[in-house]
Design goal:
heterodimer; A: alpha/beta; Rossmann fold; 6-stranded mixed beta sheet; 4-stranded antiparallel beta sheet; 7 helices; globular; B: alpha+beta; 2 domains; 6-stranded mixed β-barrel; binds adenosine-5'-diphosphate; binds magnesium ion
């Protein structure tokens, strides 16, 4: 199929994306013909029951996973046709990741962890640490720079992870269940931070969650079920989300 | 990213020390065992090295190594002297005699009888610790080696005049010399040839070796060929005799196999400890590697990171282990005075154990890399 996608203001465009795992008897269709456009400047919440394909969808959108069928266009680049090496560099340059389990390097302190994407990009360590310190201050951890992950609370670790995801100023921020391991208060802090610091007019932010307590942070909510997108709702400020 | 790799490695102190310990242990075991093997092998040749002065050794056709004595008739000396290219040729007696000590005990001794006139084969002046080789010309005189003295007269400082009895003949110790440690470890006595014969039971033939010097411009190897052709004896250069002696012990004793087994064990244990700990280390960090992969670290860079980690533990472990082995050898050769040490660490031992360590860490790294390379970046979300 020739690309019918055209470059628009969309940060992420999925067209007819299908992803199957396994073959024969054990074959699961994690994504079933998903077509979705996500714009810059919004905080998109991807919600749905566990196992409905949310993680698979963001993995494909972030270039971590190849779709079985369909087209993926991110930042105007067709990921489906990109070579492995270029995709790795593309991720490093344009995408920031936040994980449910924080995934910080346990041997390195907060500021060292936060500077890793800059090191990957080839910055000198001194400059990278300086920039990371700035971003850590923005996420409210200016006083915990030298703390190791296991000296920080879950919420603080997730804030370090957010600093790390933003330190290289990515065009897309992908967060998979960032609040799932946190108590309600820390979860809110993390979401407030994502809303306040991460959301920028030239950046798309996708947060996967099945934590209904944080639904009101979304500008747009994509509901999924059984590998399909059921409904996309755009919320205006003050409006509360009503699940389908 | 090298910095990140090192931080990851050093971050898990216990595992890091475990891997380094494994490599160090393997290097220590391999290096030490190889050095003892080399030492033992080298010790078998100590008398080839110590009895210097000639260019070639002439001996019975059937002699296989330096301690294999097959006496020749006295007439052979003239034959050898008659070979074109021989500058001079002298007798050498070498054998094992039984000495009766002052207390009445018996002790096996290596007895070396030197040509009365020239004393060819005597310890060089640097090796003479007390006395002078010329003292050998005094009646009943013998010179004993340092280890031998310490063994026979423990805790007694050397004093000339001590006597032994061999074949009911008195031997007076007039000097002490350093001898390279021997394989048999018996005390060594030097005397003149005529004196040595008196220390032996009556035998028909006593000429163990003939030491010969090549005329200037005559190649010793060529001279050996000439001697063999004209005398029906066997002739070897110092170097040839050195290697044929080692060859004999290597082939005819279990030493290489036994040490080979220990070295193999060291290698296997090293692989098991270091390899497994390194592998476990990587597996435990798989999520972190996956995370780096997601954040844009290429497989190539990950491989470099793992290789760097492997190289660091390899170098550290090797340094500690081989340093330990060398320290052990140093201690043995410098502080243990009563028994001749068997420890020799030529560069080949360093290279071999270094190669083995490189192999261990490379194997460990390859095993780990496989897991990291085939890691789906998507695992970060699991
Ligand atoms: N690597 C995989 N291999 C096999 N099945 C997978 C794999 N990843 C996801 N799946 C399956 O795909 C479906 C969607 O999974 P996922 O995207 O993780 O859901 P969610 O994130 O919404 O909980 C599930 O049925 C899951 O078991
Ligand atoms: Mg998920």
């Amino acid at each position: 199929m020739t690309a019918t996608l055209t470059a628009t203001e969309s940060a992420i465009r999925l067209k007819g994306v299908t992803k199957a795992f396994g073959t024969g008897e054990s074959k699961t269709l994690a994504l079933d013909d998903v077509t979705l456009d996500l714009p810059y400047g919004e905080l998109v919440l991807l919600v749905g029951q566990s196992g409905c394909g949310k993680t698979t969808l963001i993995s494909i959108a972030a270039g971590l996973l190849d779709p079985t069928a369909g087209e993926v266009e991110v930042l105007g680049k067709n990921l489906t046709r990109m070579s492995g090496t270029r995709k790795v560099n593309f991720r490093g340059e344009f995408i920031g990741f936040v994980f449910q389990q924080y995934n910080l390097l346990p041997a390195m302190n907060a500021v060292e962890n936060a500077c890793v994407p800059l090191l990957i990009a080839g910055w000198s360590r001194a400059r990278a640490l300086e920039k990371a310190a700035e971003v850590l201050t923005k996420v409210g951890l200016g006083n915990r720079m030298k703390s190791l992950p296991d000296q920080l609370s879950g919420g603080q670790q997730q804030r370090v992870a957010i600093a790390r995801a933003l330190v290289h100023d990515p065009k897309i921020l992908v967060c998979d269940e960032p609040t799932a391991a946190l108590d309600a208060a820390s979860g809110r802090t993390v979401m407030e931070l994502i809303k306040a610091v991460a959301c920028q007019p030239d950046r798309a932010v996708i947060v996967v969650t099945h934590d209904s307590r944080v639904y009101d942070f979304g500008d747009r909510i994509v509901e999924m079920a059984d590998g399909r997108v059921e409904k996309v709702s755009v919320l205006t400020p003050g409006e509360t989300f009503q699940p389908a | 990213m090298n910095w990140v790799a090192l931080r990851m490695l050093l971050g898990d102190r216990t595992k890091f020390l475990g891997i380094v310990f494994g490599v160090a242990f393997a290097s220590l075991l391999m290096g030490q065992q190889m050095a003892i093997f080399c030492g033992l092998m080298r010790n078998t040749t100590s008398q080839v090295r110590d009895i210097a002065g000639g260019d070639i050794w002439v001996m019975d056709k059937n002699v296989q190594f330096v301690d294999d004595i097959k006496p020749m008739s006295e007439g052979k000396l003239q034959l050898v002297r008659g070979v074109e290219g021989v500058e001079w040729a002298v007798r050498l007696y070498k054998g094992v005699g039984r000495a009766k000590l002052e207390g009445g005990n018996f002790q096996q001794m290596i007895l070396i009888g030197l040509d009365d006139a020239s004393l060819v084969g005597a310890p060089s002046p640097e090796r003479m610790l007390v006395g002078d080789v010329a003292d050998l010309r005094r009646p009943d005189a013998v010179i004993i080696d340092e280890f031998g003295w310490r063994y026979l007269f423990p805790n007694e400082p050397f004093a000339p005049g001590k006597t032994l009895e061999m074949n009911d003949k008195r031997a007076v110790i007039v000097g002490m010399c350093y001898c390279n440690p021997t394989f048999q470890t018996f005390p060594i006595l030097y005397s003149t040839y005529s004196q040595a014969i008196k220390f032996l039971p009556q035998e028909r033939r006593v000429l163990s070796f003939i030491l010969a010097k090549a005329k200037p411009g005559t190649d010793p190897e060529a001279l050996c060929v000439a001697v063999e052709a004209q005398t029906r004896l066997q002739a070897k250069t110092n170097d040839q005799f050195f290697w044929s002696t080692i060859d004999y012990y290597a082939k005819r004793t279990g030493i290489p196999i036994n040490f080979g087994i220990t070295v193999m064990l060291g290698f296997v244990v090293g692989c098991a400890i270091a390899g497994q700990t390194f592998y476990l280390f990587t597996i435990e960090n798989l999520k972190q590697f996956g995370c780096l992969k997601a954040m844009g670290v290429s497989n190539f860079r990950l491989v470099r990171m793992i290789l760097l980690q492997a190289a660091v533990v390899g170098f550290l472990g090797y340094g500690i282990g081989i340093g330990g082995a060398a320290g052990f050898g140093y201690a043995m050769t410098h502080f243990v005075k009563s028994t001749p040490p068997a420890f020799y660490m030529p560069w080949q031992v360093l290279a071999l154990s270094g190669g083995a360590v490189a192999l261990i860490v490379t194997l460990a790294a390859l095993l780990s890399m496989r897991r990291v390379l085939f890691l789906e970046a998507g695992v970060v979300f699991r």
